[in-house]
Design brief:
about 0% strand; mainly alpha; Helix Hairpins; single chain; about 70% helix
Length: about 140
């Protein structure tokens, strides 16, 4: 693996790999990075994300596990590149994305973290949908 200025050695752990990937997405937008990446904005990345997601689904439907991992990685990287573009444009930060996703998943899993536990997948879906409807009414 070739190192770039923000990655002096290959990551050793999952969190290090995650950090390396977001740093790579950010680095590619710098003057030392890639001219093509610098030109892309969040809208452009949304189209690429749709394409990469479709390729992931295709690999999944074909039970091509090696290809699934690659396409899942492509989808993840494209999403991170979109976040890097949004950060650069001052739209939001990666930390905000992580925090909002975490808060939403905890809130939507009230059937796990609340007082009333779902016993079946159907109960879980019903609880999720109930919370989702309430969110739409209030927000």
């Amino acid at each position: 693996m070739t190192a770039y200025p923000h990655l002096p050695h290959p990551p050793a752990t999952e969190p290090e790999w995650h950090q390396a990937l977001i740093e790579l997405a950010r680095y590619l937008r710098t003057p030392e990075g890639c001219p093509w990446d610098r030109e892309q904005d969040t809208r452009a990345f949304a189209g690429f994300l749709r394409d990469e997601s479709a390729e992931y689904v295709e690999a999944l439907e074909g039970d091509d596990h090696a290809h699934m991992a690659e396409e899942c990685g492509d989808t993840l990287f494209t999403l991170l590149a979109s976040i890097a573009a949004a950060e650069e444009a001052g739209l939001f930060t990666y930390e905000e994305v992580l925090k909002k996703a975490h808060e939403k998943m905890i809130r939507r899993h009230d059937h796990v973290f609340g007082d009333v536990k779902a016993q079946t997948p159907e109960e879980a879906i019903a609880a999720w949908e109930r919370i989702k409807r309430a969110e739409k009414r209030h927000g």
